[in-house]
Specification:
Elements: H1 6-16, E1 19-24, E2 31-35, H2 37-54, E3 60-66, H3 71-86, E4 90-96, H4 105-119, E5 123-132, E6 135-142
Parallel strand pairs: 3-4
Antiparallel strand pairs: 1-2, 4-6, 5-6
C-alpha cells in the first residue's frame, strides 16, 4: 500500500477488522502489516512446535566395562550400544582400571579393539581408544543416523 501516515493506517486496519502490526521497527520508515495478530501468534507457535518436534536430540550414552568383562557380558553391552546407535545417539565405551589393574592396559586395549571391530557394521569409530587417567575411552557414532519413525498400525 506504500507509505501511509499512522492514523490512516490505523483506520484502514480498523475498517478491515484486523490489527496493525509493526513487522520491522528498525527500517526507515517502520514497516507495518495489517493482519489478525492472534492468528499470526498461533501460526508462529505451531511452526515453532513443528520445528522442535523435527529437531533430533542426540545424546551421549555411556557403556561402562572392565578389562576382565566376560565375552557374553560384552556381547550384551554391545547389543545395548547398538540400540543406542540405532536411536541416533553417540556411544562412549569406558573401561575403568582400579588399583594395580593399570598394569593391564594392553589387555584393555585389545578388548576395545575387539569391540571396535564388532561394532563397525553399525557404527563409525569417532575416536579410537585413548587413556584418560585410569579410564580407557572410545567413541562411536551411528552410520545411518536416527531411524525414521514410520506409521504405526
Amino acid at each position: 500500500m506504500g507509505i501511509v501516515p499512522l492514523p490512516q493506517a490505523l483506520d484502514m486496519a480498523d475498517d478491515a477488522g484486523l490489527d496493525l502490526v509493526e513487522v520491522a521497527a528498525q527500517a526507515r520508515p517502520p514497516v507495518c502489516r495489517i493482519m489478525d495478530f492472534g492468528k499470526f501468534k498461533y501460526q508462529k507457535k505451531k511452526r515453532q512446535a513443528e520445528a522442535k518436534k523435527r529437531q533430533s536430540s542426540s545424546q551421549l550414552k555411556e557403556v561402562k566395562i572392565r578389562y576382565k568383562t566376560d565375552d557374553h557380558d560384552l556381547a550384551t553391552k554391545m547389543r545395548r550400544a547398538t540400540e543406542f546407535l540405532n536411536d541416533g545417539h553417540k556411544v562412549k565405551f569406558m573401561m575403568f582400571f582400579k588399583g594395580r589393574e593399570i598394569q593391564f592396559t594392553a589387555l584393555g586395549q585389545q578388548t576395545m579393539e575387539k569391540i571396535a571391530a564388532d561394532m563397525m557394521d553399525v557404527a563409525v569409530l569417532e575416536q579410537s581408544p585413548r587413556m584418560e587417567g585410569r579410564v580407557l575411552t572410545m567413541y562411536f557414532m551411528s552410520k545411518a543416523g536416527k531411524k525414521e519413525e514410520g506409521g504405526r498400525a
